[in-house]
Amino acid sequence: MNKWGKLSLGMVLVAGLMTGCGNNNKNNSAATDTSANTATKAAAKTLTLGTSADFPPYEFHKVVDGKDTIVGFDIDIAKDIAADMGAELVIKDLNFDSLLNELSSGRVDMVISGLSPTPEREKAVGLSDIYYKAEQAVVVREADKDKFATMDSLKGIKLGVQTGSIQEDIAKGIEGAQLTSLGKISEIVLQLQSNRVDASIMEGPVAKAFVKNVKGLAITDAKPEVADDGYVIGVKKGNDELLKQINATLTRLKAEGKIDEYVAAASELAEK
Ligand code: ARG
């Protein structure tokens, strides 16, 4: 399934985009990529990442060397955090709306999943410094590109959004909009293709990746506004030790220009 670009409409595409659903709860160990530290430690500690790998170029499934692998720039950052800690990274692919609960109950140690900071999330979990910023976008069927060129034009229409996301909140604020909330972005794309919803709100980079790889979709000129356009990493409330380590790695990665590098590489990978 590494040739997204060659796929067209239909079930082949569906199967490709929906790998994220079928693989829920399947652990994807990135042990081989962590630092040499890991090998030298007798009982290596693990760092469990919770993510919703339906979100190219942040986190998505890709066949690498014949093996289904979770890749993306969030994953690159997670690997660096684990390496800096001398820990082995374990990845859990879950629905986005379950991630913060998994954190609070201690089933995952950190959430990196294109997570936007909101006042409610700030109350529920610990949030890191912002590591990247992006804008929101509106995705529609190509023929409707001009019809839905403003936020006003979305009033009263059928909108598909990810459950528990800030996009769901944005959509709730659109007068008369009829919402379909779904667990994975790939499911929303299917709804768009089959005319069950007329538009979706997504982060710009995700919208670009899907539009590049799915025939018949387009990004409109409508610009959804959000209070915070940055992404943060979540930890369990009170886990200040881990938060400190995460922020230290983020500071290093930013200073080294690594995050922009990871974003560029992941975007390229998502488009292949
Ligand atoms: N940034 C949005 C939010 O925090 C959406 C994130 C969705 N992430 C994902 N991996 N599907 O609500």
TrEMBL record:
Q: Where is the Solute-binding protein family 3/N-terminal domain?
A: 46-266
Pfam families registered for this protein in UniProt: SBP_bac_3
Its annotated compartments are:
Cell envelope
Gene3D superfamilies cross-referenced by the UniProt entry:
Periplasmic binding protein-like II (3.40.190.10)
- Keywords associated with the record: Signal
SMART domains to which the protein is assigned, alphabetical: PBPb (SM00062)
Q: Which InterPro entries match?
A: SBP_3_CS, Solute-binding_3/MltF_N
Q: Has the keyword Iron-sulfur been applied to this entry?
A: no
Its domain of life reads Bacteria
Main subcellular location of this protein, as a coarse class: other
Q: Which SUPFAM superfamilies match?
A: Periplasmic binding protein-like II
Q: Which family does it belong to?
A: Belongs to the bacterial solute-binding protein 3 family.
Q: What is this protein called?
A: Amino acid ABC transporter
Task: Tell me the organism.
Answer: Paenibacillus helianthi
Source taxonomy:
Bacteria, Bacillati, Bacillota, Bacilli, Bacillales
